[in-house]
Every structure is written in C-alpha cells, then in structure tokens.
Amino acid sequence: MLFTMLQTDFSRKSEAKKSKMSDPKVCGKCNTVIPNHWVIYGDKHFHKTCFRCGPCNRIIDPKETFNERNGTLVCHGCQTEHFQPKCAVCDEVTIGTRLIYQDKNFHYTCKNCKACGKPFEAAQHDHIVIKMDGSFVHDNCSNF
C-alpha cells in the first residue's frame, strides 16, 4: 500500500512537470507567447529579440557578459559607460587601479604631484601623501 501511494504521488508530480513543460512560455518583456527559441534569465523567459539592454536597446546575446540594474538588463558596454566611476580630471571611465579621494576617482596618470609636477604611478600608491589642502604629493619629493 505504501508503494502504491508513492507511485501515485510520483505519477502526479511527473504529470505536473510535463504539464508545466508544455505550458506556453510568456515573454518577461512584452508579455506575449513565445512559440520557440527563448532566452531564460532568472525565472523569466524572453524572446531573443526582447532580451535587450535598457540603456542602448541592443539585443544581448545570452552568452555575453551583462548585468542587471534595478530590474533592467545592461550590456557590458553600457555598464562600463554609464555605471563605472569616471576620473574627476579627464571624465573617462576608471577601470582597475585608481586613486580615490573624497568620493572622486582619478587615473594615476591624471593626477600630478603638486610639488614636482610629475604624474603618479600605481606602484607609488603607498607613497602618495594627500595634504590638508587636498593636493597630492610624492612622499619623497624633494619639493615637498
């Protein structure tokens, strides 16, 4: 009798799974039925043409790197352009090592020593002094 109950329960689960697999897929973007060839992201299905970057509207290949910001898909290019910190001097994106001071980002080469005028290098990071006036100087600069 126990075997019969388990078998019946298993059969119900199996039928429910088949039913769920045959349910029509509805696009998480346009809310229309997807007849075939969909992209799955999270718990949603999308038409391949609806799987797009929010900022640039480009179709995202699901094999490429992308992010999600506040429920919106963002391609790698837009992630870099719109959401990465930018240098306070040149306004270009700062990726990798950078100087950060008072919520501002700087490329090492965009910030010069106030004493000698030479640009900083990432290898000098532990040898940069920030003075009370907010200027950056080399700790061993002869004009310091």
Architecture overview:
This protein has 144 residues and is an alpha+beta fold. The chain has 2 helices and 10 strands. The strands form 5 sheets. The protein has a two-stranded antiparallel sheet. Strands 3-4 form a two-stranded antiparallel ribbon. The protein has a two-stranded antiparallel ribbon with strand order 5-6.
C-alpha end-to-end distance: 90 Å
What is the count of helical runs?
A: 2
Average pLDDT rating? 80
Order of helices and strands: HEEEEEEHEEEE
Summing up helix and strand content along with how strands pair, one would put the structural category as alpha+beta
For the secondary structure, the number of strands is 10
Low-confidence runs of at least 5 consecutive residues: 1-19
Shape: rod-shaped
**Strand fraction:** 15-25%
Strand order, main sheet: write it out: 1-2
Most strands sheet:
2 strands, antiparallel
- Rg estimate, integer Å: 27 Å
Helix content: 10-25%
Defining key terms:
two-stranded antiparallel ribbon; rod-shaped; two-stranded antiparallel sheet; alpha+beta; 144 residues
Topology (elements, then pairings):
Layout: H1 2-22, E1 25-26, E2 33-34, E3 38-41, E4 44-47, E5 66-69, E6 72-75, H2 76-83, E7 99-101, E8 104-106, E9 128-130, E10 136-138
Offer a concise description of the structure.
It is built from two helices and ten strands. It is of the alpha+beta class and 144 residues long.
